[in-house]
Amino acid sequence: MPTAIEAGLYVLVLGSIVGLEVIRRVPALLHTPLMALTNAIAGISLVGSLLLAGSDRGALITTLGAIAVAASSINVIGGFMITNRMLRMFRPSKAGAHAARKAEIDA
Fold it and tell me: Domain of 70?
């Protein structure tokens, strides 16, 4: 019977492989909604890692929890930055909006 660490590593490896395959097969049109979902999942892992880092279960668990907090925070912040950048691409530019208003007035 595997130990808790072995079982956890097994789940991590299988989850990484399945996640990679799922994300690789997503069409480009769905990347922004997928990124929003990924941010939500990273937020959940951030809450879990905060709980783990704050628990009094020993130095190793606290250290691993702190590393998980740092990694999850980077993931959440980076995900929001990328999502914001992707959404800005769909906003009309000021020059384009000004030209459209002028065309409406002239018509």
Answer: 4-106
